[in-house]
Structure formats: C-alpha cells, structure tokens
Amino acid sequence: MSTVSTQPVTAAVVIPCLNEEASIADLVREVRDAAAGIDLLVDPVTIRVVDNGSTDQTAIRAAEAGAEVILESRRGYGRACLTGVLAGPDVDVIILMDGDRSDQPAELPLLLAPLLAGEADLVIGSRLLGSYAPGSLLPQQIFGNRVAAVLLRIVYGVRVTDIGPFRVMRHERLLALGMREMTYGWSIEMIARAAKGGLTIREVPVSYRKRAGGVSKVSGNLRASLKAGYRILLAIVRARRDSLPLPDDLREWQHGAPDA
Q1: Does the residue 5 lie in any domain?
Q2: pLDDT tens for residues 75-109?
Q3: What are 172-204's pLDDT values in tens digits?
Q4: Strand extents, DSSP E, the chain
C-alpha cells in the first residue's frame, strides 16, 4: 500500500476526448477551480486533454480553457489514457476522468484523500454507491457494471460496485501495472491488474451528471456496446494470463502496442 504523503505531490488530470467540444472547456475550467481549492498537499495540478482524433473543435476549446492538449490520432480509449499518462514530465499522482463532463471535479478531494493518506493504491469513484442523475447511466451500463463486478470478484477476489472512469492512482504504480488494453477495457484492466498485483483498491461514493453534450461512443449504440463488452471480458482474461512488465519497458512498447 502507498505510504502517507507528508510533502506536496504533483498531479496530472488526464482527460481522453473524442468530439467533446460542447463540454470540454467547461470541464477544464471546473478542474482548474477544483484544483485551486484542494487542501491535500497536491500542487501543482496539470490538466492533460488527449484529443483522440476529434473532427470538431475539442482541441481548440480545451487549449483556450487552459489545458495542455496532446494529440493521439490512433483511436482507442485506453490508448488515449496511456498517452496522457506518459506525456510530459513525470508526476506523483494520475487523475483520470472522462471528457463529457459527467464526472464532477469538485469531488476530487474525496478520491485523493485515501490515496494520500496511504489507505489505498487505487481509488475509484463509484456512481452506484453515490448518486447519478436520471438518464446519465443507461440500464445496459448498470447491468454491464454488475457483470464486470461479479467477474472481478470471481477471478481476482476484489469487490467493487462500479467500473467508473473517475479514479486516482500514483503514477509509478500505474506504470508498473503494464496496461495493455488500448480500447474500452482499459478501466477494468486497471482494476484487474491492481488486484493481481496485491494492491489495495478502494471505492468512494461520487455523483454523476448527464453528459453535457455530444454523443456517447458506447451507450445507445448496440454494436459499440457489444464490442466494448467483448473488450472488457478480454481485458479480464488477459490480465489474469499476463505477467507484469517492468515499468521501464512501458514507454518502449507503448509506441507500437497492438490493439488486441
């Protein structure tokens, strides 16, 4: 488990985006406001928006709002997340959230507190333990979360209620997981590999809003939902099979990592 932080730590908020021009500027401003109010020895906080091949003004809006914009033309939610994690100078803590403004940056202290207190290695915001606005989570998303949670408990013995995107982890520990899933299995692979590595995983209740604009890349699209479900199952199986690579190997293979 992580040790208690007694000195200020640096953090990067990584926000993968694909065509989120309607929400990204307001989200970046919310993150900046939240970071300014954090009294948890976290300073400074860098905001990295990873534009995953948007055809709209996502990158421009994010930059205007004050984010560092990183272009990743190779499509894939996990690839965008990993590109953001590896970008720029190393930081102590990585904060992940989606770009549709459903997650609430004001709740960042809820996730950071147990990590910085040494009580957890990976902290996940649970929408099911907290609250979610009507229509923000569709029935198939809730069902998929429950199936994934059951599989994680059976295969890895870890108990979670949600595979939500809002989470925090120390940078070096995230690199040590050797994340390989470059699509929508990224979030569950992180939990699986953390559990396999004996890390402490903790959930905290968070609130969840309806997306501020744009179109979901998975929910509401049957084909995309089925594909995401397959990738999630594949990530669980592969994490069970794979050995954990050395962190130094990650940057080398990431540039040519396959999507499968």
Answers
A1: no
A2: 999 999 999 999 988 999 999 999 999 999 999 99
A3: 999 999 998 898 889 999 999 999 999 999 999
A4: 9-17, 42-51, 68-71, 93-96, 122-132, 167-170, 201-208
Q: Which two tokens stand for residue 202?
A: 């903790």
Can you tell me the distance from the alpha carbon of 125 to that of 111, in angstroms, rounded to the nearest whole number?
Answer: 7
Residue 4 lies in a domain: no
Among candidates 250, 212, 244, 236, which has minimal Cα distance to 86?
Answer: 250
Instruction: Check: CB of residue 9 under 8 Å from CB of residue 116.
Output: yes
CA atoms of 12 and 33, how far apart (whole Å): 14
| Residue 152 covered by a domain | yes
- Please, what is the Cα angle at 126 between 50 and 171, to 5 degrees? 45
Cα–Cα distance measured from residue 43 to residue 52, given in angstroms and rounded to the nearest whole number = 27
Residue 239, domain extent = 10-251
Domain total of the chain: 1
Count the alpha carbons within 13 Å of 169 in the hemisphere toward its beta carbon: 28
